[in-house]
Structure formats: structure tokens, C-alpha cells
Design goal:
Elements lengths: L9 H17 L1 E4 L1 H9 L5 E5 L11 H7 L3 E5 L2 H7 L8 E6 L4 H20 L1
Parallel strand pairs: 2-3
Antiparallel strand pairs: 1-4, 2-4
Helix pairs in contact: 1-4, 1-5
Length: about 120
């Protein structure tokens, strides 16, 4: 996967799904590549979550660079089906963005920090 800049550990992926679910219940999560792109461009996103099994990759390829440009944290999860469910959908989604953390504030911050560490480690290699 060319767009996936780091491989999240399983625990981080699980925490991410949980945080997205909590934010969807108590705050606000936008779903789908177009909505996520808009949230990033408007600087509304607290955390961008990108699924790893997206095909074709071009659908989400721009999201990491756009997030970095706007200084918005992002992470990856392995499965678009599970990401869709976590975001409150009955269908898969390639990407989701937490725009209002609700009661998931600490969780989102924790994930953002871990994702930043993984990204830094990858860039140093």
C-alpha cells in the first residue's frame, strides 16, 4: 500500500475503532473520502482515520499529505468494514474524521500521539 505510511499495531487499531465509535455516539464523525477531505480542508478534523484495504488506492491516497499540510493527526486501520461500523454506518467506509470528539477526547489525543510516533519512526528508517 503506497499511501499507508505506517502499519498500526493491532492494539492501536482497536483503540482507534473504539474512539471513532465513542466519538460517533457522543460527538461527531464525518464519513467517506469526500466528507473527510472537506473536514481537513476546513481544519475541522481532530483525527483522520484511513482504512488500509481500500481499492483503488487513489480514493484515499491524498489524505495523509493533506492532513500533514494542515497539521491534522491521522492514522490507519486495517479494515474499511470495521471502520464503517465504528463510525455508525451499516456499510464500509474508506475514511472517517472525528470533528467533535465528544467524550472520546482523551482517546483521540492518545491515538494522535501514538500515530505521530509511528510516523516519525517510519520517516527515520
Amino acid at each position: 500500500m503506497t499511501y499507508q505510511k505506517f502499519e498500526p499495531e493491532e492494539t492501536l487499531a482497536e483503540q482507534t475503532y473504539d474512539a471513532v465509535e465513542k466519538a460517533a455516539d457522543t460527538g461527531k464523525v464525518v464519513k467517506g473520502t469526500n466528507e473527510v477531505t472537506k473536514a481537513i480542508e476546513r481544519n475541522n478534523a481532530d483525527l483522520v482515520v484511513i482504512a488500509g484495504n481500500v481499492s483503488p488506492e487513489e480514493i484515499v491516497m491524498h489524505l495523509p499529505a493533506l492532513s500533514e499540510e494542515r497539521d491534522i493527526s491521522y492514522t490507519f486501520v486495517p479494515d474499511k468494514e470495521e471502520l464503517g461500523l465504528a463510525a455508525g454506518l451499516e456499510v464500509q467506509t474508506a475514511a472517517a474524521a472525528v470533528v467533535n470528539t465528544g467524550s472520546a477526547d482523551d482517546d483521540v489525543q492518545d491515538i494522535a500521539n501514538k500515530a505521530a510516533e509511528l510516523l516519525e519512526a517510519e520517516e527515520e528508517e
